[in-house]
Amino acid sequence: MYKCALILAAGKGKRMKSDLPKVLHKVCDKEMVNHVIDTMRKSEIENVNVIIGKGAELVKEATSNKNVSYSMQEEQLGTGHAVKCAKDFLEGKDGVVAIFTGDAPLITEATVKNLIDFHQKGDYKASIITAVIDNPEGYGRIIRNEDSSVKKIVEHKDCTVDELKVNEINSGMYCFDIKSLLKSLDKIDNNNAQGEYYLPDVIGIFKEEGLKIGAMAVPFDEILGVNSRVQLSAVSKVMQRRINEKHMENGTTLIDSDSTYIGADVVIESDTIIYPGNVLQGETVIKTGCILYPNSRIQDSVIGKNVTVQSSVILESTVGEDTTVGPFAYIRPESKIGNKARIGDFVEIKKSTIGDNTKVSHLTYIGDAEVGEGCNFGCGTVVVNYDGKAKHKTVIGNKSFIGCNTNLVSPVKVEDNTYIAAGSTITNTVPEGSLAIARAKQVVKEGWVDKKGLLK
Ligand code: UD1
Ligand code: MG
After folding, report:
1. Banded model confidence at residue 404, pLDDT cuts 50, 70, 90
2. Can you give the pTM of this predicted structure?
């Protein structure tokens, strides 16, 4: 059977008090709408169409690598109107359409698959995901007939006193037979408390036409929607717990799961230990046997096996195996750190490669440089890569010893097996096998203190 999905994402989300469209707010480092799209894909739904309106260009940009199509809803006249705007997408299709909203990212692949299954097996023309909750305030209510079949959905603001008491709510997530849905869309009106075209009204229309309707209840935390920052935080907590539990089940130790923030797309191999205060983001991969001591942020980076990191920031870079990073290191984008290397305290590496077994232990800046294997950087080395106008490159060969407090004025080359004396400012090539000293010679004035009458 052909399956497609619509994701409603045209609203602004006024209560977020944000310039960003609501569906682009992130939950566990991924835009809410992208969570929903990814869940549709995992549920084997072929075509996904996103209904955009407020901030359309931004939503398009944020979803550009997701292979989805778009329908434009210029004015937000209600969820029914939003689906109408996707008529072009639905017309001529034969099968089912799953309808979800871009502001409810907790929906799982299992539930989407179950819904479609439930819909098919029950031979329904419409299936609704519902939940039974203690406080249904604000939600549309599922109104059932005496034989418990679904009669209609009534929005909170349109409920009678009796209807308000119903605590089975509409999740805003459905599965429809495409042809039946298309026929009903034109029949909904906006004669209601909010003057909007409600999508849930098609349920009542289906009922009147004798079409079979199913309702499938799921745990409430799968359908939690985000309308405010408080709800964004609540949803993030649920998502984070799920992500962390998945990693723990796969063999990662989290010393304190509640204070470990792992993005939705992060991959962690087994036998890694993560201490509190770590934030792992983007498409980061942590290989096996690593120890992430407290308080690091690692984004879009690959960390090799048996690496230890502490209180450091690593962005868009790779770190080789058995290397140690930190405390207090800053590895900036496009850096590649080799195996068994050391990037120590107060070291910043920017757009540079550092070879295997090279040690950069303390207080050093390396930018736009290629550094070979087995080098040792003394404390306080600075690669002077910027002349005020442009950045220049420094190349350092293998097994070089860079003395403490050295400046390497780029562009400059330090060849293999060299020594640089502490305190040197290097401006010319240091040839292979040589020692370079580039500092003023020491002058000693014997007896000077006494002569000056300064002796204490
Ligand atoms: C909707 C349901 C309600 C259900 C609740 C669950 C309707 C009328 N009501 O109410 O029964 O209990 O979800 O959370 O559908 N949107 C558009 N275009 C529009 C209007 C909305 O794209 O013209 C999008 C919004 O961006 C949002 C989603 O549809 O992502 C839901 O709209 P919202 O206004 O939040 O509906 P609710 O009042 O929550
Ligand atoms: Mg809502």
Report:
1. very high
2. 0.93
Q: Can you tell me the mean pLDDT for 79-103?
A: 97
User: What is the separation, in whole angstroms, between the first and last Cα of the chain?
Assistant: 97
pLDDT at 46 over 90: no
The residues facing 386 across adjacent strands are 391
Q: Determine the topology of domain 250-436 in CATH.
A: UDP N-Acetylglucosamine Acyltransferase; domain 1 (2.160.10)
Distance CA 437, CA 309 (A): 35
Q: Delimit the domains of the chain by residue range.
A: 3-223, 250-436
**Distance in angstroms (rounded) separating the CA atoms of residues 174 and 360:** 57
Which atom of ligand 1 approaches the CA of 197 most closely? 8
- Judge if the beta carbon of residue 159 lies within 6 A of ligand 1: no
Tens-place pLDDT, residues 378-394: 999 999 999 999 999 99
**Host H or E run for residue 33:** helix 32-42
Domain 3-223 annotated CATH 3.90.550.10: yes
| pLDDT above 90: residue 414 | yes
Query: Is there an atom of ligand 1 within 6 Å of 11 CB?
Result: yes
Judged against a pLDDT cut of 90, whether residue 399 lies above it is answered with yes
Ligand nearest to the CA of 158: 1
Q: In sequence order, which ranges of 222-362 are alpha helices (DSSP H)?
A: 229-249
